[in-house]
Write a structure and sequence with these properties.
- This protein has 410 residues and is mainly α.
- The protein has 15 helices and no strands.
- Helix content is 78%, strand content 0%.
- The chain is globular.
- InterPro entries: BCCT_CS, BCCT_transptr.
- This is BCCT family transporter.
- It is a multi-pass membrane protein.
Length: 410
């Protein structure tokens, strides 16, 4: 019995809800070897520099926000000072419990962001924005294929815009793919594919169209009717452009304060998200709660990399490092999509066979063998390792992270 217990509780390498597990339909058990380690390392580097680039942009916008509201002078030391200060706050929050702190900050951020967008919609040209929202949905749907494949081969005068905007932002989204994929997978367990597609693709896309309508079309309308072209001349000053736009709306003091609060909150949430994601990819046993020193390590590494790269190369070096890792990961995502398709086909075939066999005489010999032959000890140990033990570890993590209980697993 002691030998059995030792084998059950022996260290195993669970791959559920991990980056390497996406390739299980293709690689099978090889994901627990060097190939899986390479996939995780690439995911860590892609996530790290994607978050670093985002934090660099956020610090620049936050510095411009403080300067626009006449709170701090826009000196060369303002961005590094903001980086250090916000990182210290974010790491302190993560030490109180990364799961709870991240959830509370995200919910607060979401609520304040909705309020901010609603105020801009009400204070701005409301009727025009509602009409533009309807047209923007139609424009998005009708041009999804055409614009998605447009590479400006026959429109070379706008090729620079394509490289500086489309390619860069696609690479930026690819750099956030590992973190978002793991995070969405964790909160989507138990949902059907139909629910997943609706909740992850359709609802956020609709919200993005609404957001860009309120602020994009709103800024265009203000630039043409109130600012007389002043916003267009300041389009390169991204950090201050939002506050210049809000200056032409009623109750600008309220909306500017909300904007400053949201930008700061986004900064802190981004750091906590980076720590959470890097913890999840790096830890070997996904069912275990990451130790606090590991959160401090990733938070310190994010802070140091962002600070050093920005200090010696500015925002351009942050972009370059992000592109260097995100584009190879985009190729890896193509293989990941193939693996997902293969896994879905296998799962459909498996469950359709299981259900149909209960009502027909097909495969009756194999079903009779399962009923007559007693499972071996190795089969029971394998089931306990891959199913029961993982479930108990996940329950322990939930009780510790969510309810703050002191739980041990024996």
């Amino acid at each position: 019995m002691g030998t059995v217990c030792k084998r059950i509780l022996a260290p195993i390498k669970p791959f559920s809800i991990s980056l390497r597990s996406c390739f299980y339909p293709l690689l099978k058990e090889k994901i627990n070897g060097k190939v899986g380690d390479i996939i995780d390392i690439l995911g860590i580097c892609t996530t790290l520099f994607g978050v670093v680039a985002t934090l660099g942009y956020s610090a620049i916008r936050l510095a411009a926000a403080f300067h626009s509201m006449h709170l701090l002078d826009n000196s060369s030391y303002l961005v590094p000072l903001i980086l250090v200060s916000v990182f210290i706050i974010a790491i302190l929050i993560s030490l109180q419990g990364i799961a709870n702190g991240f959830r509370i900050l995200s919910e607060l951020n979401l609520g304040v962001t909705f309020l901010f967008m609603l105020l801009v919609l009400l204070f701005g040209p409301t009727i025009y924005l509602i009409s533009a929202f309807t047209e923007n949905i139609g424009t998005y749907l009708s041009g999804l294929i055409r614009v998605g494949f447009k590479a400006y081969a026959y429109d070379v005068e706008h090729l620079d815009w394509f490289m500086d905007w489309t390619v860069f932002y696609w690479a930026w989204w690819f750099s956030w793919a590992p973190g978002f994929g793991i995070f969405i997978a964790r909160i989507s367990r138990g949902r059907t594919l139909r629910e997943f597609i609706f909740g992850v693709l359709m609802v956020p896309s609709l919200f993005f169209v609404l957001w860009f309508t309120v602020f994009g079309n709103g800024a265009i309308w203000v630039n043409e009717h109130l600012a007389k072209g002043a916003l267009g001349r300041a389009v390169n000053d991204v950090g201050a452009l939002l506050f210049d736009f809000l200056s032409y709306l009623p109750y600008s003091g309220l909306t500017k304060t909300l904007a400053l609060f949201i930008i700061t909150l986004f900064f802190i949430v981004t750091i906590n998200f980076g720590i959470y994601t890097l913890n999840n990819i790096a830890i070997e046993d996904k069912s275990q709660v990451s130790p606090r020193w590991q959160s401090m390590f990733w938070g310190g590494l994010l802070s140091a990399v962002t600070f050093v790269l920005y200090l010696f190369g500015g925002i351009e070096i942050l972009q370059s490092t992000m592109l260097f890792f995100s584009l190879p990961f985009a190729l890896l995502m193509s293989v990941m999509a193939w693996s997902l398709l293969k896994g879905l086909r296998f799962e459909r075939q498996y469950y359709s066979t299981e259900v149909s066999d209960l009502w027909t005489g097909a495969n009756w010999r194999s079903r009779l063998r399962q009923l007559v032959i007693e499972p071996k000890r190795d089969d029971a140990i394998l089931h306990l390792k891959t199913t029961a033990l993982l479930a108990m570890r996940e329950l322990r993590q939930l009780l510790i992270g969510t309810y703050g209980l002191n739980v041990t697993l024996q």
